[in-house]
Amino acid sequence: MWKIHNKLLIYILWIMEIRLVSSFTSVMLCGRIPGLTPGQRNMCREMPDALIALGEGHQLGAQECQHQFRGHRWNCSEVWQRNVFAHVIPTASREAAYTYAIASAGAAYAVTAACARGNISTCGCDVRHKATPTGGGTPDEPWKWGGCSADVDFGMRYARRFMDARELERDSRTLMNLHNNRAGRTLVKKMLRTDCKCHGVSGSCVMKTCWKSLPPFRLVGDRLMLKYQKAKTVQAVKGKRGLRLVLSRKKHAGTARAQKPVLDWPKRMELIYLEASPNYCERSLQTGSQGTSGRTCQRTGHGPQSCDLLCCGRGHNTQHIRRTTQCRCQFRWCCEVKCDECDESYEEFTCK
Amino acid sequence: MDYQYFEEESDYIDLDEEEEDDDVVTAGSLDHRFGQPNGEEDYYFGGDDVEEELVVDGHGVLELAGRLLESLQSCVQPSVLQVMQYVAPMLLLCLLCRLLCLLYSQRRRLTSLAPLHLFHFACGLIILQITVGYRLLLLLLLAAVGYLLLQLLRLGRRGAQVLAVLTVGSQFLYELLIWRRRSDWPQLRGIQMVVNMKLISLGFDLTASGQLQARIPGPFAYLGYIYSPATCALGPWVSFGCYMDCLVPRNSWLVSLRRLLPNVVICVLAVTVSNCVAPALSDFFGDSSHFLVMYWDALSVRSSHYFVGMMAQALLVASDQRLDGATKESDMLGPLISQPWRIEWPRSISSLVRSWNIPMHEWLKRYIYAPCKPTASTSRGRILVVVLSTYLVSSLLHGMDLRIYLVLISLAFLAEGESLLRRQLASLLNACITANLCPGKERCRYSHCPSKRRLNSLSYWLARLTNLAFTALAIFHLAYLGVVLLGDDLEVGEDGDSFLWHWQQAGYLSHYIGLGTFVLYLFIS
Q: Which of A45, A130, A196, A202 has the most B C-beta neighbours within 10 Å, making it the best mutation to test the interface with B?
């Protein structure tokens, strides 16, 4: 029932044209989309056509997360399907860090791409790259820029306002989410490419044309996956202006002297998490773990998708599947298609 | 209801702030627990992550095509807009200069040519101001130095030769002087190269009979010639006599506007291919064929040259400036600077070299090749030395760019070897397979000419196939030599061997083919 309701809303959202969305969404649809906080609903009413881009970004993040974690025990399912514009992970784990970062990166990526396509009415070309009438300029900026480059700053600002508006508390989990959100969208900005081309007499550089372009989102996911593997454990300490997160330190049991602890801050582009991950073997609502029972695994092979690792030592079931498919189809004049029937059988392994 | 979230400064740690509290209170009252990752997690995440991605071929190709279209879309629009911002002021200033010269020439009876020169100089200055900005002062300083060097012509022919040597040498001096700001030089190099060619041609023209046969042009005429709006930013070289002949425009406006449109359209197409299409295709074929990567990267270099040439042709048409050697004027495009159709489908390397930059070819032929070539009983070795000298001077005009030297000297060897071999083969086989195009049916001195024989003749198809093989070889040489010129020349100092990477990947095949051509020629003759 709840899922049907969500799919109906998604269907209504995607099938409308921008004009209808501009008039209808601001009144009706912004109030009905589940998972939005009041601040996000206000932003939805202010700029309804950006909501479509955010929906695309949401799907970008969801698909990329499920692609990167395919074959892992925690495969990024169930997290994105609960709400339309929300992703909730109860445990402040390493996987939660990746999830928030990829969601923020997807939102920033999609809004920036929508600006470049002209799908959002209030953002246009990056005005800093507009050509001035006089070509003199300052010596620090010798080249004249023109045309539409990807307005990445608008995407950054809008994604930040929208994704950070979900954090209503003022606890350590919120600090962690805000940090990982920023790491995700800043990565998109850093991965922008600037291509330039010189034109002039005999290969000189009398004229120069430059443009910026977004990389494929798969590269963003791959880069975040590297950061996920190097994520840092943090803990909350009380500072002058409230809570702050510092890197956790390994305690040396052999040290007799109690030295003054030196606090380390996490770097801006690092992913951080507060809690150790559960083993994700058993289903647990408290930790958001779906368990690996029923998952397809590989009997021959290594890595996280192998049956020994994926099934947590519980063993696997072997199912012999035999099916008949149509093959070697040929068109006969006139007018029928005839196919042969081929039998194929294989084994499928699932975790107990 | 406004949402609440943390302020900017409290989101992240301020690095300047130092924590003075000695008692770090671990927030035990928080609802989140923290600790070290357990051993099982380390084993799980530290495992072997090598996974085989089963990429479906159809999906992969579709994804690549989508990525191709996306990169094209984000590249074409900025490129065309930026190019139009360059082209439009230049064209308007050329048309303005032409209008002013026309009004002045119709109003009075040409009592003095100084206002015409001033119109050219002023419009050229505005174009250079728009293009290079504050570096215009450096260009004017170099022009003053050039005018002082021009006084050497009082010494006669020897003075012209000294002027040529000093002009080419000063190109290196300029680069060394502004080495600290050498990022400025790639923008000025092309402009100064055309100025140097104009100076040298002016020197040799004025001392053609051995002595200074005419007065040295005055400052206004000199500045109008050097910085004429049609030729100051993008070339090409025109001689001083040709500039004087075209001070008063003669063609009608309708002819010029009719010729402007195809030039501008080809400009836009060429810059689109150079910026967007060729790099995208190079990325597309990046894993399959190294030759295709070389070809598309070299096409990016060539289409950049076509873009500059077509834009310069548009400026010539707008100013009604003709080129030297008026036989190569097209009715649709006006004066031709390059002929892309003969470069993309060359008959031989020497024919594509002549079609690359026709005014520069005219300049080299008139002032370097013809004086060095003796008229009586020219030997093969002497011609080879003269050709190499011509290519060397062409390299020196480009200044301090090692890639230009490598490409042009290699081009000299390849072109001359091919020309010698084909001439020898044509004599042996009595067929029209020389490097130059054979004349028509009556004047062809070989018996196996495509124009003499009929289509069903065997020698016709053999001659055609041989020429086709040489065309394919020239296309390969074009891709091989052109790919080195891709990218900024300032990268030479940083990565010493980076621009030779493509040649190493190809195994220096073009150079070996050139060497084999010479060996085969010596073996036959």
A: A202
